Task: inverse folding
């Protein structure tokens, strides 16, 4: 299956629309599911999915074939999700307008964590940067190894280890 995706990407890189349709049909369902696990806003998930596959279409020609295609695709999607999270945090606030917490619902993971952990931990997790939260989600909630997390997020293993260490340190400091 992985080799098929690599072959499809090579064809997509040459502008083959049928190969892209097959690539999309094969990978969009699992990618949408994975995005929904981190974001309950269906419109945002749909937008992120479109942005991810548009980026994949544009970058397919430069894909060298090193690493797994699903990891490459997930790294594009996760960066888009982090960017969307950053944009939401820096959005200017209007006086007397409802804040973002009132307009968005928490993700399924956030709801599960809220029921399982005390309020201090939930607040400490909310204060983590999106990059640190993404590493914690992948390693703790998804149960991925450092190597798998690096592959999925498109980061070097050392960066994943450093971010995991920083996230734990920040959580410890916030909880002590």
Result:
């Amino acid at each position: 299956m992985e080799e098929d995706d690599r072959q499809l990407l090579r064809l997509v890189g040459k502008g083959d629309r049928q190969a892209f349709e097959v690539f999309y049909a094969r990978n969009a369902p699992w990618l949408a599911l994975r995005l929904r696990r981190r974001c309950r806003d269906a419109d945002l998930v749909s937008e992120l999915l479109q942005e991810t596959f548009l980026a994949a279409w544009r970058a397919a020609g430069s894909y060298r074939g090193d690493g797994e295609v699903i990891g490459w695709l997930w790294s594009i999607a996760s960066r888009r999700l982090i960017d969307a999270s950053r944009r939401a945090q820096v959005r200017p606030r209007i006086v007397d307008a409802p804040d973002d917490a009132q307009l968005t619902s928490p993700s399924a993971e956030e709801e599960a964590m809220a029921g399982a952990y005390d309020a201090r931990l939930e607040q400490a997790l909310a204060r983590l940067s999106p990059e640190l939260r993404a590493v914690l989600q992948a390693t703790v909630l998804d149960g991925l190894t450092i190597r798998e997390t690096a592959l999925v997020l498109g980061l070097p293993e050392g960066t994943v280890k450093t971010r995991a260490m920083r996230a734990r340190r920040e959580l410890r400091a916030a909880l002590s």
In short: The CA atoms of residues 77 and 129 lie 17 Å apart.
